[in-house]
Amino acid sequence: MSVLNNREWALLIWLGAVLALFLLRGDLRSILFQVIRTALHPVLVAPVLLMVGWVGGLVLVTARIGWWNGELAMDTGVWFFGTALALMFNVTEALREERFFRRTILRAVKVAVPVAVFINLYVFSLAFELILLPALTVLLMLSVVAGSEQRFGGIKALIDTVLALAGFALFAYVIFQIVTDWQDFDKSGALWKFALPVWLTISIVPFVYLFSLYVAYDGAFKWIDFATNERRQRRRAKLALALRLRLRTQDIAAFTVYWAKQAAAATSFHDASQVIDDSTASRRVDQRAKSEAQDRLRQYVGVDGVDDDGRRLDQREFKEIRDALRALATAQMGWCRNRGGRYRAELLEILKSRFERCGLSPDHGISLWVADGGQSWWAYRRTVTGWCFAIGAAAPPPDEWLYDGPEPPTGPPGQDAVWGKRWGVDAKNW
Fold first, then answer.
1. Confidence grade of residue 295 (pLDDT, cut at 50, 70, 90)
2. Residue 265, phi then psi, degrees to nearest 5
3. Domain extent listing, the chain
4. CA distance 15 to 18
5. Does residue 85 surpass a pLDDT of 70?
6. Cα 398 from Cα 412, distance rounded (Å)
7. Which residue, 365, 363, 367, is CA-closest to 150?
8. What is the C-alpha to C-alpha distance for residues 76 and 197, in angstroms, rounded to an integer?
9. Model-level pTM?
């Protein structure tokens, strides 16, 4: 236990205090036990134990060649419960994002990693660390909360300034201690501490890749099982999938129920293989379309005017706002049909997280009007380019009106002529 410094002791003391609080209070104790039961589910325990074995093997090998010793045990534990578990449980990002593993390795060597190690080379007294740790934690939490609302922007800026000053102070303190204690400073030990999170993260990438491969195949095989009850068709489709896609995790993860049904319905192995190839080709087409859309956005930033089809050239935020307004319209239809036959004004608050998933900020900027009696509604949002998108209904579902133009409508559909015809016949940018 002599390898623990005061900061690590402070962390353990506070974790123990929080654990004791949960155990002493009945309401919190039930929550804690529920979390423990969830964490001990075999689906979660099995991959964690496998990762423990993988990291344990790394430690044994590197200890033999002199890259690891007992003084790095706490640093290894912090890395495992932070970086390693985060990588494993965010494996869906590896299935969705291009070059995920390359970025993971680059993050391991970026400036923030050695800076974090550097700040921990020298620590304060235990009493001071016991105060410093919760203070910084509270400030970080407040910064996150303040960042969720634009109206708290000033408070967030102030908190972030305090955190930055605290970081600079810690950095300066370590430099001062190293300079004044240079003769006795453990230079080789510090070097190994700097190297530890880098080589550990690089060494864990193969495990995370194999785990992501398992997750991808598990999901694809479940879609095939869902598509048919015939064992022979299942085996044929799964074999075709494995032989055609092999180790391409993202292509496997993109194998949806639509393709699974076609592969399961194939009457031969050749036909099932062709379905797999078609799924990959479709994904490539989607990727090219997304890439071309991104190129278009970059090419026409700040450019006024329209293309040959009458669509605006600068389309920044167009897709995000269209998706958000569509989500609002779908919710309005559902509520009107199933919740009393009227449209609702409170949906803006209810759908905040949905708007964020569409790509808008927490302060989504959508304006919504619902008529008295809730029989009509409309909403609009102005893009960063100044162009406006609006959507609404002048009657019960499935009535829908779409609009886009330089200025928002001044009234609801059916009353303001700027809306044009129903279903967005005149809305070229929808």
1. very high
2. -85, -10
3. 6-210, 229-299, 318-424
4. 5
5. yes
6. 16
7. 363
8. 8
9. 0.72
